[in-house]
Amino acid sequence: MLITAVEPRRKALSALFIDGEFAMNLDTQTLLENRFEVGREIDDAELKEIIEKSNERRAKEKALWLISYRDHSKKELTDKLRRSFDGESAEKAADRMEELGLINDEAFARRYAQTLINQKMLSPRAVAAELNRKGIDRDTIDSILDETDVDCRANIRAVIEKKYKNINDEKIKRRAAAALQRMGYGWDDIRAVFEEYKEDY
Fold first, then answer.
1. Residue 140 and residue 192 in one domain
2. Torsion of CA 129, 131, 133, 139, to 10 degrees
3. CATH number assigned to the domain comprising residue 88
4. Residue 108: partners with Cβ closer than 8 Å, 6 or more residues away
5. What are the average pLDDT values for consecutive 10-residue runs of the chain, which has 201 residues?
């Protein structure tokens, strides 16, 4: 197979033409580093290797771009990269970000748990479910929650004060109870706080 043209495209890509036909868009830097130039003869193995190298470089660049915007767990980053790249390239990119210290599941989990508890007012049970969804292992989740002191009833009060002014109205109370249960709070705590509001009126 003969490389007959290499034409620049957007987003640091170049179009590779083989035997006069467009073959694919690949990472420009990878093509240059591997001397994929017009007039070079290549075989299937070389083409396969350059595709893998291109995908790996582009996956790493995408990973850097994603983590520049916000924290990610390793699983979350890998899953996002899989939407654009093959599984192996996505995993290698996430592994590299971890090696460089740019992602750290335990540090991510601690920060994310605090956000879920302090800003979203989720219960420890809901926080555990969210962390699990992000790919955090059970031991890390348990360790973080063991160190985190959450006053469930205080959080329930805060949610009611913020979102449900007339909590003694039955319709509002039902809506609040459903929302609080979705946030992971148990019925015993919800009912106890509702009782406090009854006494206030």
1. no
2. -90
3. 1.10.10.10
4. 71, 72, 73, 134, 136
5. 88 89 90 88 90 93 93 94 93 95 93 90 92 93 89 90 83 90 92 79 45
